[in-house]
Protein backbone atom coordinates (compact mmCIF):
# COMPACT_ATOMS: atom_id res chain seq x y z
CA UNK A 1 0.00 0.00 0.00
CA UNK A 2 1.53 3.33 -1.00
CA UNK A 3 0.11 5.17 2.04
CA UNK A 4 1.60 2.63 4.46
CA UNK A 5 4.97 2.94 2.73
CA UNK A 6 4.92 6.71 3.14
CA UNK A 7 4.06 6.52 6.86
CA UNK A 8 6.72 3.92 7.41
CA UNK A 9 9.37 6.04 5.74
CA UNK A 10 8.24 9.08 7.74
CA UNK A 11 8.67 7.19 11.02
CA UNK A 12 12.10 5.99 10.01
CA UNK A 13 13.16 9.57 9.28
CA UNK A 14 11.87 10.74 12.65
CA UNK A 15 13.80 7.95 14.37
CA UNK A 16 17.01 8.93 12.54
CA UNK A 17 16.59 12.58 13.52
CA UNK A 18 16.02 11.67 17.20
CA UNK A 19 19.11 9.49 17.31
CA UNK A 20 21.18 12.25 15.74
CA UNK A 21 19.97 14.84 18.28
CA UNK A 22 20.62 12.48 21.17
CA UNK A 23 24.12 11.80 19.88
CA UNK A 24 24.88 15.53 19.61
CA UNK A 25 23.59 16.14 23.15
CA UNK A 26 25.79 13.38 24.54
CA UNK A 27 28.82 14.81 22.79
CA UNK A 28 28.14 18.29 24.13
CA UNK A 29 27.68 16.91 27.65
CA UNK A 30 30.92 14.96 27.38
CA UNK A 31 32.74 18.04 26.12
CA UNK A 32 31.39 20.09 29.04
CA UNK A 33 32.50 17.44 31.53
CA UNK A 34 35.99 17.37 30.01
CA UNK A 35 36.18 21.17 30.02
CA UNK A 36 35.09 21.30 33.66
CA UNK A 37 37.76 18.78 34.62
CA UNK A 38 40.40 20.82 32.79
CA UNK A 39 39.30 24.05 34.51
CA UNK A 40 39.35 22.30 37.90
CA UNK A 41 42.88 21.02 37.22
CA UNK A 42 44.02 24.50 36.12
CA UNK A 43 42.55 26.06 39.27
CA UNK A 44 44.23 23.45 41.47
CA UNK A 45 47.58 23.95 39.72
CA UNK A 46 47.24 27.74 40.02
CA UNK A 47 46.52 27.51 43.74
CA UNK A 48 49.47 25.17 44.25
CA UNK A 49 51.72 27.55 42.25
CA UNK A 50 50.64 30.55 44.34
CA UNK A 51 51.28 28.67 47.55
CA UNK A 52 54.72 27.62 46.39
CA UNK A 53 55.54 31.17 45.24
CA UNK A 54 54.53 32.67 48.57
CA UNK A 55 56.52 30.04 50.43
CA UNK A 56 59.64 30.64 48.35
CA UNK A 57 59.25 34.43 48.63
CA UNK A 58 58.85 34.35 52.40
CA UNK A 59 61.81 32.01 52.74
CA UNK A 60 64.00 34.25 50.57
CA UNK A 61 63.01 37.34 52.57
CA UNK A 62 63.86 35.51 55.79
CA UNK A 63 67.22 34.50 54.36
CA UNK A 64 67.93 38.06 53.22
CA UNK A 65 66.97 39.41 56.64
CA UNK A 66 69.16 36.88 58.39
CA UNK A 67 72.04 37.68 56.05
CA UNK A 68 71.62 41.40 56.79
CA UNK A 69 71.65 40.79 60.51
CA UNK A 70 74.69 38.61 60.17
CA UNK A 71 76.45 41.29 58.13
CA UNK A 72 75.67 43.92 60.79
CA UNK A 73 76.90 41.69 63.58
CA UNK A 74 80.08 40.96 61.63
CA UNK A 75 80.70 44.68 61.06
CA UNK A 76 80.21 45.49 64.73
CA UNK A 77 82.46 42.61 65.76
CA UNK A 78 85.18 43.76 63.36
CA UNK A 79 84.97 47.29 64.76
CA UNK A 80 85.20 45.97 68.31
CA UNK A 81 88.21 43.84 67.39
CA UNK A 82 89.97 46.81 65.80
CA UNK A 83 89.04 49.01 68.74
CA UNK A 84 90.77 46.69 71.19
CA UNK A 85 94.04 47.40 69.38
CA UNK A 86 93.70 51.18 68.98
CA UNK A 87 91.13 53.68 70.23
CA UNK A 88 91.09 55.62 66.93
CA UNK A 89 90.43 53.42 63.90
CA UNK A 90 92.35 54.25 60.72
CA UNK A 91 90.11 54.07 57.63
CA UNK A 92 90.99 54.21 53.98
CA UNK A 93 88.45 54.65 51.20
CA UNK A 94 87.23 51.04 51.22
CA UNK A 95 86.87 50.80 55.00
CA UNK A 96 85.07 54.13 55.10
CA UNK A 97 82.52 52.92 52.58
CA UNK A 98 82.12 49.55 54.33
CA UNK A 99 81.77 50.75 57.92
CA UNK A 100 80.37 54.27 57.52
CA UNK A 101 78.48 54.71 54.27
CA UNK A 102 77.04 51.23 53.66
CA UNK A 103 74.00 49.77 55.43
CA UNK A 104 73.08 48.18 57.78
CA UNK A 105 74.49 50.27 60.61
CA UNK A 106 73.09 50.72 64.12
CA UNK A 107 76.06 52.61 65.59
CA UNK A 108 77.30 56.19 65.45
CA UNK A 109 80.81 56.95 64.34
CA UNK A 110 82.87 60.12 64.67
CA UNK A 111 85.46 60.57 61.92
CA UNK A 112 88.38 62.97 61.94
CA UNK A 113 89.53 63.94 58.44
CA UNK A 114 93.14 65.05 58.62
CA UNK A 115 96.46 65.32 56.78
CA UNK A 116 99.26 64.10 59.04
CA UNK A 117 102.03 63.78 56.47
CA UNK A 118 104.87 66.31 56.97
CA UNK A 119 104.61 67.26 53.31
CA UNK A 120 101.09 68.59 53.92
CA UNK A 121 102.41 71.11 56.47
CA UNK A 122 99.27 70.93 58.59
CA UNK A 123 100.50 72.37 61.89
CA UNK A 124 97.17 72.07 63.68
CA UNK A 125 96.54 68.47 62.54
CA UNK A 126 99.05 67.00 64.99
CA UNK A 127 97.62 68.92 67.92
CA UNK A 128 94.05 68.06 66.90
CA UNK A 129 94.98 64.39 66.59
CA UNK A 130 96.46 64.35 70.10
CA UNK A 131 93.32 65.89 71.60
CA UNK A 132 91.10 63.55 69.58
CA UNK A 133 93.07 60.55 70.82
CA UNK A 134 92.59 61.71 74.42
CA UNK A 135 88.81 61.73 73.86
CA UNK A 136 88.86 58.28 72.25
CA UNK A 137 90.98 56.84 75.07
CA UNK A 138 88.73 58.40 77.69
CA UNK A 139 85.70 56.77 76.09
CA UNK A 140 87.42 53.44 75.48
CA UNK A 141 88.27 52.93 79.14
CA UNK A 142 85.13 54.49 80.65
CA UNK A 143 82.02 52.80 82.02
CA UNK A 144 79.88 54.25 79.20
CA UNK A 145 81.83 52.34 76.53
CA UNK A 146 79.61 50.28 74.20
CA UNK A 147 79.27 49.26 70.57
CA UNK A 148 77.07 52.28 69.83
CA UNK A 149 79.91 54.76 69.24
CA UNK A 150 83.27 54.46 67.51
CA UNK A 151 86.10 56.89 66.71
CA UNK A 152 87.85 56.78 63.34
CA UNK A 153 90.29 58.81 61.29
CA UNK A 154 90.77 59.25 57.54
CA UNK A 155 94.08 60.66 56.36
CA UNK A 156 94.14 62.51 53.05
CA UNK A 157 97.03 60.43 51.71
CA UNK A 158 95.17 57.20 52.53
CA UNK A 159 91.65 58.24 51.50
CA UNK A 160 91.72 61.17 49.09
CA UNK A 161 88.63 59.73 47.38
CA UNK A 162 86.72 60.16 50.65
CA UNK A 163 87.68 63.84 50.74
CA UNK A 164 86.40 64.20 47.17
CA UNK A 165 83.21 62.30 48.02
CA UNK A 166 82.44 64.63 50.94
CA UNK A 167 83.80 67.73 49.13
CA UNK A 168 86.32 68.53 51.84
CA UNK A 169 89.12 70.93 50.96
CA UNK A 170 90.57 71.58 54.41
CA UNK A 171 91.81 69.68 57.45
CA UNK A 172 91.20 68.83 60.18
CA UNK A 173 87.43 68.27 60.05
CA UNK A 174 85.34 66.38 62.60
CA UNK A 175 82.06 64.85 61.33
CA UNK A 176 79.56 62.74 63.26
CA UNK A 177 77.77 60.06 61.22
CA UNK A 178 74.60 59.10 63.11
CA UNK A 179 73.21 55.58 63.23
CA UNK A 180 70.16 56.61 61.21
CA UNK A 181 69.92 59.22 58.50
CA UNK A 182 72.50 61.50 56.95
CA UNK A 183 74.73 63.94 58.84
CA UNK A 184 73.19 67.35 59.49
CA UNK A 185 75.09 70.67 59.48
CA UNK A 186 75.40 70.47 63.28
CA UNK A 187 77.16 67.09 62.90
CA UNK A 188 80.22 68.96 61.59
CA UNK A 189 82.21 70.50 64.43
CA UNK A 190 83.01 74.21 64.08
CA UNK A 191 86.64 74.10 65.18
CA UNK A 192 87.28 77.71 64.13
CA UNK A 193 84.79 78.89 66.73
CA UNK A 194 85.31 76.44 69.62
CA UNK A 195 88.81 75.06 69.05
CA UNK A 196 90.00 71.44 69.13
CA UNK A 197 90.57 70.73 72.81
CA UNK A 198 89.53 67.33 74.15
CA UNK A 199 86.94 68.88 76.45
CA UNK A 200 85.31 70.75 73.57
CA UNK A 201 85.26 67.63 71.40
CA UNK A 202 83.72 65.59 74.21
CA UNK A 203 81.01 68.21 74.79
CA UNK A 204 80.19 68.29 71.07
CA UNK A 205 79.93 64.49 70.95
CA UNK A 206 77.59 64.54 73.95
CA UNK A 207 75.35 67.04 72.15
CA UNK A 208 75.17 64.81 69.06
CA UNK A 209 74.95 61.34 70.66
CA UNK A 210 73.75 61.89 74.27
CA UNK A 211 76.83 59.95 75.40
CA UNK A 212 78.76 61.74 78.14
CA UNK A 213 82.52 61.28 78.01
CA UNK A 214 84.62 62.21 81.02
CA UNK A 215 88.00 63.38 79.79
CA UNK A 216 91.05 61.78 81.40
CA UNK A 217 94.27 63.48 80.39
CA UNK A 218 97.60 61.71 80.88
CA UNK A 219 99.62 63.21 83.72
CA UNK A 220 101.77 66.13 82.62
CA UNK A 221 104.57 66.97 85.03
CA UNK A 222 106.15 69.71 82.93
CA UNK A 223 104.23 72.50 84.71
CA UNK A 224 105.13 71.06 88.12
CA UNK A 225 108.79 70.79 87.17
CA UNK A 226 108.78 74.34 85.78
CA UNK A 227 107.26 75.77 88.97
CA UNK A 228 109.72 73.83 91.07
CA UNK A 229 112.69 75.05 89.03
CA UNK A 230 111.43 78.63 89.17
CA UNK A 231 110.99 78.41 92.94
CA UNK A 232 114.51 77.05 93.35
CA UNK A 233 115.91 79.79 91.13
CA UNK A 234 114.10 82.59 93.00
CA UNK A 235 114.98 81.06 96.35
CA UNK A 236 118.63 80.69 95.40
CA UNK A 237 118.77 84.23 94.05
CA UNK A 238 117.25 85.66 97.23
CA UNK A 239 119.65 83.63 99.32
CA UNK A 240 122.65 84.95 97.42
CA UNK A 241 121.36 88.51 97.74
CA UNK A 242 120.24 88.14 101.32
CA UNK A 243 122.49 90.96 102.45
CA UNK A 244 121.21 93.37 99.80
CA UNK A 245 117.47 93.19 99.14
CA UNK A 246 116.98 96.80 98.08
CA UNK A 247 115.97 95.68 94.59
CA UNK A 248 112.69 94.41 96.07
CA UNK A 249 111.75 98.05 96.62
CA UNK A 250 112.51 99.00 93.01
CA UNK A 251 109.34 100.59 91.63
CA UNK A 252 110.40 100.25 88.00
CA UNK A 253 110.85 96.50 88.34
CA UNK A 254 107.41 96.01 89.86
CA UNK A 255 105.89 98.35 87.29
CA UNK A 256 107.46 96.29 84.49
CA UNK A 257 106.12 93.06 86.00
CA UNK A 258 102.65 94.60 86.30
CA UNK A 259 102.70 95.82 82.69
CA UNK A 260 103.79 92.40 81.39
CA UNK A 261 101.01 90.76 83.40
CA UNK A 262 98.48 93.21 81.92
CA UNK A 263 99.75 92.49 78.42
CA UNK A 264 99.34 88.76 78.97
CA UNK A 265 95.77 89.11 80.28
CA UNK A 266 94.63 91.63 77.68
CA UNK A 267 96.02 89.58 74.79
CA UNK A 268 93.95 86.53 75.77
CA UNK A 269 96.33 84.15 77.53
CA UNK A 270 93.65 83.12 80.03
CA UNK A 271 91.29 82.34 77.14
CA UNK A 272 93.99 80.11 75.66
CA UNK A 273 94.35 78.30 78.97
CA UNK A 274 90.60 77.65 79.19
CA UNK A 275 89.76 76.86 75.55
CA UNK A 276 93.08 75.34 74.35
CA UNK A 277 92.89 76.79 70.82
CA UNK A 278 95.28 75.70 68.05
CA UNK A 279 98.57 77.51 67.57
CA UNK A 280 97.78 78.24 63.91
CA UNK A 281 95.37 76.78 61.38
CA UNK A 282 94.96 76.56 57.64
CA UNK A 283 92.97 79.20 55.83
CA UNK A 284 90.37 78.53 53.16
CA UNK A 285 92.87 79.09 50.35
CA UNK A 286 95.24 76.48 51.81
CA UNK A 287 97.72 78.85 53.47
CA UNK A 288 98.55 79.24 57.15
CA UNK A 289 96.34 81.68 59.07
CA UNK A 290 97.84 83.51 62.04
CA UNK A 291 94.71 85.51 62.88
CA UNK A 292 91.36 83.84 63.57
CA UNK A 293 88.68 85.00 61.15
CA UNK A 294 85.95 85.31 63.78
CA UNK A 295 85.46 87.48 66.84
CA UNK A 296 84.34 84.33 68.71
CA UNK A 297 87.74 82.67 68.59
CA UNK A 298 91.48 83.23 68.52
CA UNK A 299 94.74 81.38 67.89
CA UNK A 300 97.67 81.03 70.25
CA UNK A 301 100.05 82.90 67.96
CA UNK A 302 97.41 85.62 67.61
CA UNK A 303 97.68 86.39 71.33
CA UNK A 304 101.44 86.89 70.98
CA UNK A 305 100.90 89.21 68.01
CA UNK A 306 98.34 91.27 69.93
CA UNK A 307 100.64 91.37 72.96
CA UNK A 308 103.49 92.69 70.83
CA UNK A 309 101.29 95.34 69.21
CA UNK A 310 100.00 96.53 72.59
CA UNK A 311 103.58 96.67 73.90
CA UNK A 312 104.67 98.83 70.97
CA UNK A 313 101.74 101.21 71.50
CA UNK A 314 102.57 101.53 75.19
CA UNK A 315 106.24 102.08 74.37
CA UNK A 316 105.25 104.83 71.96
CA UNK A 317 103.09 106.50 74.60
CA UNK A 318 105.97 106.28 77.09
CA UNK A 319 108.36 107.91 74.60
CA UNK A 320 105.86 110.68 73.90
CA UNK A 321 105.55 111.29 77.63
CA UNK A 322 109.31 111.25 78.17
CA UNK A 323 109.85 113.67 75.29
CA UNK A 324 108.19 116.45 77.22
CA UNK A 325 110.51 116.04 80.22
CA UNK A 326 113.82 116.16 78.35
CA UNK A 327 115.94 119.32 78.35
CA UNK A 328 117.74 118.54 75.08
CA UNK A 329 115.44 119.91 72.36
CA UNK A 330 116.89 117.80 69.57
CA UNK A 331 116.73 114.58 71.61
CA UNK A 332 113.23 115.45 72.73
CA UNK A 333 112.15 115.96 69.12
CA UNK A 334 113.58 112.59 68.01
CA UNK A 335 111.95 110.83 70.95
CA UNK A 336 108.59 112.40 70.18
CA UNK A 337 108.80 111.44 66.49
CA UNK A 338 109.71 107.83 67.29
CA UNK A 339 106.95 107.59 69.89
CA UNK A 340 104.38 109.07 67.53
CA UNK A 341 105.48 106.68 64.77
CA UNK A 342 105.09 103.66 67.09
CA UNK A 343 101.65 104.74 68.27
CA UNK A 344 100.29 105.51 64.79
CA UNK A 345 101.65 102.45 62.98
CA UNK A 346 100.95 99.80 65.60
CA UNK A 347 97.57 101.24 66.55
CA UNK A 348 96.65 101.07 62.85
CA UNK A 349 97.76 97.44 62.74
CA UNK A 350 95.77 96.41 65.82
CA UNK A 351 92.75 98.31 64.47
CA UNK A 352 93.10 96.44 61.16
CA UNK A 353 93.16 93.09 63.00
CA UNK A 354 90.04 94.04 64.93
CA UNK A 355 88.37 95.08 61.68
CA UNK A 356 89.15 91.69 60.07
CA UNK A 357 87.70 89.80 63.05
CA UNK A 358 84.62 91.97 63.63
CA UNK A 359 82.94 91.81 60.26
CA UNK A 360 81.27 95.08 59.35
CA UNK A 361 83.41 97.30 61.58
CA UNK A 362 83.60 100.52 59.54
CA UNK A 363 86.67 102.29 60.93
CA UNK A 364 90.32 102.00 59.93
CA UNK A 365 93.38 104.22 60.02
CA UNK A 366 96.43 103.47 57.88
CA UNK A 367 95.78 99.83 57.02
CA UNK A 368 92.53 98.14 56.00
UniProtKB/TrEMBL annotation:
It comes from the Eukaryota. One of its GO terms (biological process) is protein N-linked glycosylation via asparagine. InterPro entries: OligosaccharylTrfase_OST3/OST6, Thioredoxin-like_sf. The chain crosses the membrane at residues 38-56, 221-240, 252-271, 304-322, 334-354. GO terms for cellular component: oligosaccharyltransferase complex. Keywords: Disulfide bond, Endoplasmic reticulum, Magnesium, Membrane, Signal, Transmembrane, Transmembrane helix, Transport. It holds the Pfam family OST3_OST6. Pathway: Protein modification. It is found in: Endoplasmic reticulum membrane. Gene3D superfamilies: Glutaredoxin (3.40.30.10). Subunit of the oligosaccharyl transferase (OST) complex that catalyzes the initial transfer of a defined glycan (Glc(3)Man(9)GlcNAc(2) in eukaryotes) from the lipid carrier dolichol-pyrophosphate to an asparagine residue within an Asn-X-Ser/Thr consensus motif in nascent polypeptide chains, the first step in protein N-glycosylation. N-glycosylation occurs cotranslationally and the complex associates with the Sec61 complex at the channel-forming translocon complex that mediates protein translocation across the endoplasmic reticulum (ER). All subunits are required for a maximal enzyme activity. Belongs to the OST3/OST6 family. This is Magnesium transporter protein 1. It comes from Anopheles dirus. The lineage of its organism: Eukaryota, Metazoa, Ecdysozoa, Arthropoda, Hexapoda.
